[in-house]
Protein: tRNA (guanine-N(7)-)-methyltransferase
Organism: Paractinoplanes ovalisporus
Amino acid sequence: MTHPPIRTFHPRRGRMSARHADAHTALWPSVGLTVEDGDRTPLDLDELFGRPAPKVLEIGFGMGDTLAAMARADPGRDYLGIEVHTPGIGNLLALLQDQELSHVRVARGDAMQLVHRLAPGRLDAVHIFFPDPWPKARHHKRRLVQPGNVALLRDRLRPGGVLHCATDWPHYAEAMAEVLDADPGLELVDHDRAGRPETKFERRGTGAGRPIADLRYRRVHDDSGLSGN
């Protein structure tokens, strides 16, 4: 019997404000992508964005402030963000409308389902900023940064591409480092923020006394024989 995949997120809908709903109505048809469970149709990112350019994937963009800020400062790369939180999707769409960011696309659904649809070596960078830490031991299997997921993400990175994770939970930071260090196709770059803006969520964590950990790893060039799922 085939078991459904373990979810790494809480499905959260919530209500959009009028501003967010207006932005959704105006922009979703042109910049939105709904990721359906079980859909493995290959996704052509150049076609999605309408141009050939390096691609950055942000998994779980929250309210979208970080993604919008990084995209605004980096017009030479295309940014694809995926989230399940409806108000966050609405807020990012409003930011795209206000700031006229044409090189951002917004996906709704399971991030790993989306990653399965991408060609190997297609991404320039993957950002995983402050994912759900699932702090209870019985829920650790739901954490996004797991060996299988990391292998798949690494496979979708180009050689030299960067996987950048950040968390304000020390135990999760340790677990992340253990998983990333163990992947033979990744090597540690540094623990630098590398242009990642500080968020309100992050400031709350700092205010609560939780240290911020950034972990940046690069896909190594000599990774023949390695593959994702």
